[in-house]
Write a structure and sequence with these properties.
single chain, 340 residues, eight-stranded mixed beta sheet, five-stranded antiparallel beta sheet, 8 helices, 16 strands, 29% helix, globular
Length: 340
């Protein structure tokens, strides 16, 4: 039960705001005396990130944190309040880990992108700078590291002997909406310029693995599809695989239709240009779960080595964090070896 005090009656309405699968229940609070209250039936998640949408009597709206709930989580767009339901457990590996070493590089773009690609390369302590090692690349890398503890996870897996010593390339999304929306220019720049330059500057064993979440997952798959055999594996979390069948909740914009066109091209393809090992994960209550299932079915038809899984969360950084082990561990272990 949610409560919000309003003893002076300044608010005209209060609503619960979150992103889960439609149809939503009625999210309107009811005024009872000097406060607003709302009782929520537990959704199909183990944790819920939310805000309160307040509207005053002049129609002005705002999203605020729940002052009655001290549990918060961060993200690129600010904090959210969080409910952790009985049974939720954060990952066991979330404990102080070897911070490793970081090296900032700038990679020259291919023709057409016009901007350099910044990447921070993380290495665990004990891995010599001149020693070849497997490489995991991550779209939205700085954000995945800050809000989904990516390098902390990698350090924990290396320390536990579950994965071999490896490096992580944290790719910064300077123009995320343009680059990650099935952009041919970005796919070309990443695969024909940035990755080859990175492999020349950072000793790497084998082809890298590319990780992405949301639009970053779409961009990861699109890059490999357009420029096959660049990556040995793809880890696709909550991919923005918007096809025509389930596109109603997406904005009708030029980049949105570019995404739909790229996805439908894969859905209709008779053969794939390459077959990297793929793991797809998606939250149990995400709006885009149906699109992910349709896309996974297409990859199976095309003969991809594919694993899929759902985790009990929405479209959140913490959900992506919590799914890293065992799902990313299994993918990397199958390619690199280790006790996965």
């Amino acid at each position: 039960t949610f409560r919000l005090a309003d003893p002076q009656g300044r608010l005209a309405s209060v609503r619960l705001w979150y992103h889960l699968r439609r149809p939503y229940p009625d999210l309107d609070f009811q005024r009872q005396g000097h406060e607003w209250t709302y009782r929520l039936a537990r959704p199909d998640v183990d944790r819920l990130e939310y805000l309160l949408e307040l509207t005053d009597h002049e129609g002005r709206q705002g999203l605020v944190l729940d002052a009655e709930n001290p549990t918060r989580t961060g993200g690129p767009f600010g904090e959210h309040s969080v409910l952790e339901f009985p049974g939720y457990r954060p990952p066991d590996w979330l404990r102080p880990a070897d911070p490793g070493r970081r090296r900032d590089l700038t990679l020259a773009p291919a023709h057409g992108l016009r901007r350099n690609l910044p990447v921070t390369v993380w290495s665990p302590d004990g891995l010599d700078d001149d020693s070849p090692a497997p490489l995991l690349l991550a779209h939205d890398g700085p954000e995945l590291d800050a809000f989904a503890a990516l390098t902390q996870y990698c350090a924990a897996m290396v320390a536990a002997g579950r994965l071999p010593a490896h490096r992580v390339g944290l790719l910064a999304p300077l123009d995320r909406n343009a680059w990650y929306s099935a952009s041919p220019a970005y796919a070309r720049s990443l695969t024909t310029s940035a990755v080859p330059e990175l492999l020349r500057r950072v000793p790497t064993s084998g082809r890298p693995v590319l990780l992405g979440a949301s639009l970053g997952a779409l961009a990861a798959f699109h890059a490999e599809w357009c420029h096959p055999d660049t990556f040995a594996g793809l880890y696709l979390a909550s991919g923005a695989f918007f096809g025509m069948r389930y596109v109603a909740h997406e904005p009708r914009c030029a980049r949105g239709w570019r995404i739909v066109g790229a996805v439908d091209h894969v859905l209709e393809a008779p053969e794939p240009p390459s077959r990297p090992v793929v793991t797809m994960v998606c939250g149990s209550a995400e709006e885009n779960l149906d699109n992910n299932r349709v896309f996974a079915d297409a990859l199976r038809r095309l003969g991809y080595p594919l694993r899929t899984a759902t985790y009990r969360d929405g479209h959140t950084w913490v959900g992506w964090r919590d799914s890293l082990d065992p799902h990313l561990t299994s993918l990397l272990g199958s390619l690199w070896g280790g006790e996965h």
